[in-house]
UniProtKB/TrEMBL annotation:
Gene3D superfamilies: Nucleoside phosphorylase domain. Its EC number is 2.4.2.3. Residues 20-210 form the Nucleoside phosphorylase domain. Keywords: Glycosyltransferase, Transferase. Belongs to the PNP/UDP phosphorylase family. It is an enzyme of class 2 (transferase). This is Uridine phosphorylase. GO terms for cellular component: cytosol. The lineage of its organism: Bacteria, Bacillati, Bacillota, Clostridia, Lachnospirales. GO terms for molecular function: uridine phosphorylase activity. It comes from the Bacteria.
């Protein structure tokens, strides 16, 4: 039996779902499941927790990817082997511009590859970009729901507690990046390399020039504004899947 399951996500190759939401946090996968009909917990191994269910008649999967690009890439590679072809990250991020308020969504148009994983796949010149149609579907969904969103560049890094982070943040603010996360760049690069559609929606949980660790702590304590951003990104991504051609 176990030979038929992926080694990390513990899902079978004949999964029969082509759309997946990718939160970092396993608890966020559980939150997605509350929006699905016939939600079925398929697997929970390490940081990878997966539910399958139906949203407005569309079969969807949610798999948490953990923290960082390395574990995200493992999940994405294995999901692709299971037949998934449309992947939307529903993540959290820090704001790099003052107009990006807590609970607003960032629809990522491209990512700065400051992670280690994506460069292990391909040279840094290779762009980290989402699929145009999937990103457009996310934008239409957010607009239809009147959800506050910003479109722009995200910087994906691999070191949340680095001493030089304030310096890096202000550098990328000066280059007009709007958000900071850890997984989007690797997701986008893998999408292009493997020929699958990817997009990334980020919920602002750390305010511009705030103490990032303190604000992430408030989100972990279920602070209301961050939780409403989480709900917004879940609904935006689910609605986007109902708008795309399979
Ligand atoms: O909330 P998730 O989706 O995990 O995303 C962000 O939160 C984690 C850091 O707190 C990193 O994974 C970062 O990218
Ligand atoms: O600034 C932030 C906030 C959340 N997650 C990140 O990766 N960076």
């Amino acid at each position: 039996m176990s030979e038929n399951l992926m080694p990390h996500i513990r899902l079978p190759k004949d999964l029969d779902v082509d759309c997946a939401l990718l939160p970092g946090d396993p608890a966020r996968a559980d939150a997605v499941a509350t929006h699905l009909e016939d939600a079925e917990l398929l697997a929970s191994n390490r940081e990878f927790r997966s539910w399958r269910g139906t949203y407005k008649g569309k079969k969807v999967l949610v798999t948490s990817t953990g923290i960082g690009a390395a574990s995200c890439a493992i999940a994405v590679e294995e999901l692709i082997q299971c037949g998934v072809r449309n992947l939307i990250r529903i993540g959290s991020c820090g704001a790099l511009q003052p107009e990006c308020a807590l609970g607003d969504l960032i629809l990522v148009t491209g990512a700065i590859r400051d992670d280690g994983t994506s460069t292990a796949y391909v040279e840094a010149q290779y762009p980290a970009i989402p699929d145009f149609d999937l990103l457009s579907a996310c934008r239409e969904s957010a607009a239809a729901k009147k959800i506050p969103y910003h479109m722009g560049i995200c910087r994906s890094h691999s070191c949340l507690y680095g001493e030089r982070n304030p310096e890096f943040y202000s550098y990328w603010t000066g280059k007009r990046a709007v958000a900071s996360d850890m997984e989007t760049a690797a997701l986008f690069v893998l999408g292009s390399l493997r020929g699958v559609r990817t997009a990334s929606i980020l919920n602002v949980v750390a305010a511009y020039q705030s103490s990032v660790a303190e604000d992430i702590g408030k989100y972990a304590s279920k602070e209301a504004t961050s939780m409403s951003g989480e709900e917004r990104e879940i609904l935006t991504a689910l609605e986007a899947f109902t708008r795309i051609q399979a």
